[in-house]
Amino acid sequence: MDKPVIAVTMGDPCGIGPEIIAAALADPAITALCRPLVLGDRGAMERGIAVAGVKLAIASAPDLLPPLDASPHTLYLRELSRLKLDEIPYGAPTKAGGDACYRYICEAAKLCLDGTVQAMATAPINKESMNSAGHDYPGHTELLAELTGTPEVVMMLAGERLRVTLVTIHEPLARVPELVTFDRVLSTIRITHDALSRWFCCAPRLAVLALNPHCGEGGMFGDEESRIIAPAVAAAREAGIDAAGPVSADTLFHFAAKGGYDAVVCMYHDQGLIPLKLLHFDDGVNVTLGLPIIRTSVDHGTAYNLAGTGKASAESMKAALVMAARMAQQGCQ
């Protein structure tokens, strides 16, 4: 495959999205791997380029794609909004910014679905601003699931040393036990296995974590392991999936980070994200598994406190682009 075209959504123009995109696309190592097509706003991107302190010329690409011999010093932009800078002040969500975010995501999904681009990589959005504009979604994942007609998706956070997927995501800790069901655990294992097989061309070795300390210690600390998780792992193994578990979370990550497993299926948000961010705080990537398209993202938010300061790190944005390009090039369709 030629260098894949990656649709890059600009994210919330009031946050760090435009400046980390500018910093990432100014790195010749990124444009050597892929052809980024930014879906966004010219004024916001010009401001982001200035804040990032990089030299990039903006080339309008309303219909065309970045050419194979694209200049490494050119940002190819499909302009989907014309925002006034007073509508998108740094550091706070706005209705105008939220509506623009929504349109960038919808266009990227459309381009992926019709095969115009090979993947999408997203800068961070603010759910409050998108909802204030009348787009009632908790975030990227739910919107993309609807746009692609996907009934079940899984969040994976990934770096070079560790990948984690989540059975439950943004839920109160008190609700997690009731949400960890046989069907949900088995579905997460299956989607993780299928996505790694398809997009990463590996025969994945999965570890499935326990919910309770010491795997419940024979029922002393809880019985979800014997009642729910172990049966789900057994069902996955019967289906030909290489899954081990339930495994105690306090020891498993040591072995996973050393390459013992290709991914770790975690029961709740912090169980997976604390070790992931310990190892990959700057370069972690959020990947939505289960979609018919490739979607990667930064693993952080809009960072309003850093917006416009030039202090935001672009490493996660770079990593998201690199992973999207590798998935597009190596995927086993």
Automatic annotation (TrEMBL):
A Gene Ontology biological process term: pyridoxal phosphate biosynthetic process
UniProt cross-references to Pfam families, sorted A to Z: PdxA (PF04166)
Question: Per the UniProt record, which EC number(s) apply here?
Answer: 1.1.1.262
The residues that the entry says bind substrate are 140-141, 277, 286, 295
| Record's keyword annotation contains RNA-binding | no
Which parts of the chain span the membrane according to its record? none
The family line of this record is: Belongs to the PdxA family.
Quaternary structure per UniProt? Answer: Homodimer.
Q: What does this protein do?
A: Catalyzes the NAD(P)-dependent oxidation of 4-(phosphooxy)-L-threonine (HTP) into 2-amino-3-oxo-4-(phosphooxy)butyric acid which spontaneously decarboxylates to form 3-amino-2-oxopropyl phosphate (AHAP).
Q: What is this protein called?
A: 4-hydroxythreonine-4-phosphate dehydrogenase
Q: Which gene encodes it?
A: pdxA
